[in-house]
């Protein structure tokens, strides 16, 4: 499993960089975030939860249903919404932002 960062959506806030426990996210010449060693990502989802621009897709491993399935988050003041996509279909799971680190 790993993440992919959409540079068209990335606004260069670098919240993702500051929360990655493995220091895997860097800034490119255009001022956008990118992941240098995708294979080193262990899928903690910290960056996914932190990105407020839906720029980070988290690709699920085969052990979790994988096969192109991915998720990203959106949020408002109260909720963190997990958008889970597979085969063109999306499932939405709402969680309380204050409790988002439990998941
Ligand atoms: S948190 Fe999202 S918008 Fe901000 S730098 Fe990272 S990918 Fe870009
Ligand atoms: S999922 Fe976790 S380990 Fe992987 S890049 Fe994001 S913050 Fe770093």
CATH architectural group: 2-Layer Sandwich
The separation of the N and C termini measures 17 Å
How many helical elements? 2
Secondary-structure-based class equals: mainly beta
Biggest β-sheet: strands ordered side by side in the sheet: 1-4-5-6-7
The share of residues in helices is under 10%
How much of the sequence lies in strands comes to: 25-35%
Regarding CATH, which class? Alpha Beta
Quantity of strands, as a count: 7
What spatial form do the alpha-carbon principal axes imply? globular
Q: Residue-averaged pLDDT, rounded?
A: 91
Could you name the ranges where pLDDT drops below 50 across 5 or more consecutive residues? none
The biggest beta sheet is recorded as: 5 strands, antiparallel
* Rg calc: 13 Å
Keywords:
103 residues; mainly beta; Alpha-Beta Plaits; five-stranded antiparallel beta sheet; two-stranded antiparallel ribbon; binds iron/sulfur cluster; oxidoreductase; iron-sulfur; 4Fe-4S; Adenylylsulfate reductase subunit B; EC 1.8.99.2
């Amino acid at each position: 499993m790993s993440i992919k960062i959409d540079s068209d959506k990335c606004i260069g806030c670098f919240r993702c960089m500051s929360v990655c426990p493995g220091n895997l996210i860097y800034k490119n010449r255009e001022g956008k975030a990118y992941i240098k060693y995708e294979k080193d990502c262990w899928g903690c989802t910290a960056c996914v939860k932190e990105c407020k621009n839906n720029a980070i897709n988290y690709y699920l491993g085969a052990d979790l249903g994988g096969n192109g399935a991915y998720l990203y988050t959106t949020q408002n003041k109260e909720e963190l919404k997990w958008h889970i996509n597979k085969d063109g279909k999306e499932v939405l799971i709402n969680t309380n932002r204050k409790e988002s680190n439990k998941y």
